[in-house]
Amino acid sequence: MIYFSDTLDTLSEVLSQKEAVFAVCDVNVKSIGEALGRSKSGKKIPVKYVTVSEKQKDLKLVQEICGWLLDKGADRNALVLAIGGGITTDVVGFAASIYKRGVKAAYVPTTLLAQVDAAIGGKTGVNFKKYKNMLGTIVEPEFTFVCSSCLKTLPEAIFRQGLAELLKAFLIENNNDNYRKAVQYFSGITSSTQYQDSTILLPYIQSAVKVKERIVGEDLYESGLRRVLNLGHTFAHGIEHLSQKWNWFKKPNPIPHGDAVAMGIVLAARLSHKVGLCPPLDEQLRDDFLSCGLKVDCPYSPKEILKAAKTDKKAEGDIVHFVLLRGIGDVVIKDMKISEAVKAMEA
């Protein structure tokens, strides 16, 4: 169940119908957690505040959450509510899926990235050995409450990180020319009030969610069709992994997920052209993402990125299920050896 709203007012009504709610809230949106401290029915909702980041997205945080649930007496009837961005929903959802062999979870995503991607589709996970979401489960939440007014808590730079996932949805399915409309609108933003306008944002969010919801509905466990949602992500996860590594010459300079996805989609478009699936699209997509405030110039070579992709969840031996473009709104899955993809991109 996905609720769409431009206000949080109805969330308390939804929660009042639940028997035992335990909320885990990102400290950056503490005001939302405090507002939910008491539902309209008068039942007290315990709230745990957590500090989250990609570095803290690990089993240690999962253990902390599970320990708190145990201390609070959460039983098999518990509903664990995650309030925050994609890291929060991923970690809390994973904790709920393994606590007492699985209790219900629900999400209140507070970033654009989480609203259009991370909190939709049932995937949970934590990072392991610096690889993104290497440990996780797929369990649909009880509900996801998508509230566009939550985005008013975001700095513009964080808001824009979600645009890569929103545009990705429209590159997969371009109903009503949503891709071009979204690029035109978001590239024209000149003030914070524009990207905080929930009446404009909500239709774009709903459209992107519908793309993912339809695909996930046909293939929850990613045995086929759902793989198209990984457009750009094989490259992106390799880019993120490389950007977090230490070496003798420089400290890590982590690349945010949205920027990595933008870079990854541009690289996927380049590979698509190189293997003869489409005319050159990478420069057009590069300009589009750049105009929307995303970084698109990748500091690593395709060979470096695809070498890191060998350990990606989407790899099977030396074979990777690449999601490639035949055009805007037209994607295809092409299985290729990493060596073949590197050779094609270097040609």
- Just give the CATH class of the largest domain: Mainly Alpha
Taken from the alpha-carbon principal axes, the silhouette is globular
Structural class: alpha/beta
- What percent of residues are in strands? 15-25%
Mean pLDDT comes to 90
How many extended strands? 11
Describe this structure in words.
The longest helix is centred in the middle third of the chain and has 21 residues. With 347 residues, the protein is an alpha/beta fold. The chain has a 6-stranded parallel β-sheet. It has 15 helices and 11 strands. The chain folds into 2 domains: 153 residues, Rossmann fold, CATH 3.40.50; 179 residues, Up-down Bundle (Dehydroquinate synthase-like, alpha domain), CATH 1.20.1090.10. The chain is globular and about 65 Å long.
Gist of the model:
The chain has 347 residues and is α/β, with parallel strands linked by helices. It has helices at residues 11-16, 30-35, 59-71, 86-98, 112-118, 156-161, 163-172, 178-187, 192-195, 198-218, 233-243, 257-274, 282-291, 302-308, 338-346, and strands spanning 2-5, 20-26, 47-50, 78-84, 104-109, 126-128, 131-135, 143-147, 315-316, 319-327, 330-337.
